[in-house]
């Protein structure tokens, strides 16, 4: 029969270096106070989230005094809410969480209350509940245990060692479709809280000191990440909402600038041409006197005439003869509509390839074939899809096209031509149903892998004058 090992006695001074690895805080100075019952951690932006049956709390920590530019977001399950009386006699109702405390090679769970300690010299207070029986206090000394260093916050190690935590994520969407439901179900399966926000019901408080996004009469909480699913019809307002989230400092999967530039078909083609990305010959003109020259720049019939505001194949016309092309162009001009004229890639035979790019990688590809008699391959118009193996040049082209618009999530549509892959369009709000159904891949899971890696705090630069403040 074995007996449990007796813990080695430890001596603590009145101040010690500690770590809270489960919260992503690798180095912290804590004041030891046997007069206090419960430990306390300096926290701000404290907000509850998650289901009422298992509520969580989200908060952020400034581990280095005087360095408010270093922000570590944390989340934990709430185990209690407790009245605490501080040393100056003030009572406060605080959230209580549990987390492992690490000192040297020892680690044990403790209860921690969350409060604003900005006026205190120490970012953390260790109460007597956190001090195990084998710990003795030497009140006249400090740092009797192995010393840590704030240097860790200036290296990539801080980001790499961040634990997985429950995130609060907003999906900006007006539709209850497959993509929105998948984003919610996958996020909740990973322990995150995912809230669907109707973009057009958001409004903004625009000011320098406290920019905010409001929704249904209330200020929206601070989200860890935002997944934009902005419809083409509300692009200007939707991107304005995303810009507001960017101003607040929320991680947005796709930036407002990337969405705006990808939605402007003329500008998008100019950007891709500048980056030397293959695409069908394209021309644009405003004057009706330039119709013949415009068509000549692209090539001979058949030609594609495409409205700049077209989506899901709407407003895209195949003109099989020169006369038909002139008629379509005249009709569009009569409507005062802006349009492009493009070469028709005959060898594509009504098929295109949708590559789903997430975080600079192609995570899935499908070949889309148009319905009988339709040159457009959009699934919304009755087309079909199946998984396809793409070539290295097709993969590289898709990745480069997404990078041109700085999109972390993009559906890149390619045509297979005799001259190599041609990019038709880069979609900043690609649907997930077709590509997950045809490839069998967990595309939304790959998106959450990206979000979980990107919301980790980045190292901060050392300050030349920070030596005294950080020691």
Automatic annotation (TrEMBL):
Gene Ontology cellular-component annotations: cytoplasm
Transmembrane segments: none
Biological processes annotated in GO: SOS response; translation
Sorted UniProt keywords: ATP-binding, Ligase, Magnesium, Manganese, Metal-binding, Nucleotide-binding, Protein biosynthesis
Residue span(s) of domain ATP-grasp: 269-452
Nucleotide-binding is among the record's keywords: yes
Family: In the C-terminal section; belongs to the RimK family.
NCBIfam families noted in UniProt: PRK10446.1, rimK_fam
Protein name, UniProt field: Probable alpha-L-glutamate ligase
């Amino acid at each position: 029969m074995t007996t449990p090992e007796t813990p080695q006695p430890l001596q603590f001074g009145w101040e010690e270096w500690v770590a809270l690895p489960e919260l992503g805080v690798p180095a912290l100075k804590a004041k030891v106070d046997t007069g206090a019952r419960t430990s306390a951690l300096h926290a701000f932006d404290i907000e509850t989230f998650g289901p009422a049956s298992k509520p969580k709390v989200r908060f952020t920590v400034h581990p280095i005094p005087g360095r408010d530019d270093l922000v570590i977001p944390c989340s934990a399950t709430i185990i209690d809410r407790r009245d605490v009386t501080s040393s100056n006699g003030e009572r406060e109702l605080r959230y209580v969480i549990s987390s492992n405390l690490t000192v040297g090679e020892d680690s044990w769970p403790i209860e921690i209350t969350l409060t604003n300690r900005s006026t205190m010299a120490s970012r953390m207070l260790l109460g007597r509940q956190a001090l195990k029986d084998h710990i003795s206090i030497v009140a006249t000394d400090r740092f009797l245990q192995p010393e840590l260093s704030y240097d860790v916050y200036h290296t990539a190690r801080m980001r790499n060692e961040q634990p997985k935590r429950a995130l609060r994520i907003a999906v900006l969407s007006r539709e209850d479709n497959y993509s929105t439901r998948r984003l919610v179900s996958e996020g909740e399966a990973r322990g995150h809280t995912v809230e669907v926000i109707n973009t057009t019901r958001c409004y903004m408080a625009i000011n320098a000191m406290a920019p905010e996004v409001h929704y249904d009469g209330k200020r929206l909480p601070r989200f860890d990440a935002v997944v934009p699913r902005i419809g083409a019809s509300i692009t200007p307002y939707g991107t304005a909402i995303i810009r507001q989230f960017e101003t607040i400092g929320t991680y947005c999967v796709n930036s407002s600038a990337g969405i705006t530039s990808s939605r402007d078909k003329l500008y998008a083609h100019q950007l891709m041409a500048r980056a030397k990305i293959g695409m069908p010959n394209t021309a644009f003109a405003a004057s009706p006197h330039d119709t013949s020259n415009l068509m000549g720049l692209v090539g001979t019939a058949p030609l594609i005439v495409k409205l700049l505001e077209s989506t899901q194949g709407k407003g895209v016309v195949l003109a099989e003869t020169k006369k038909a092309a002139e008629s379509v162009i005249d009709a569009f001009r009569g409507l005062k509509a802006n349009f492009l004229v493009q070469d028709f890639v005959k060898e594509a035979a009504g098929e295109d390839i949708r590559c789903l790019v997430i975080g600079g990688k192609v995570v899935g590809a499908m070949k889309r074939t148009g319905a009988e008699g339709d040159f457009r391959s959009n699934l919304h118009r009755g087309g079909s899809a199946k998984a396809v193996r793409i070539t290295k040049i097709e993969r590289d082209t898709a990745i480069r096209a997404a990078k041109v618009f700085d999109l972390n999530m993009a559906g890149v549509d390619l045509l297979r031509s005799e001259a190599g892959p041609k990019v038709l369009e880069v979609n900043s709000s690609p649907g997930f149903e077709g590509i997950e159904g045809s490839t069998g891949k967990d595309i939304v899971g790959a998106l959450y892998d990206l979000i979980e890696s990107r919301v980790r705090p980045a190292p901060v630069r050392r300050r030349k004058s920070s030596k005294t403040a950080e020691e």
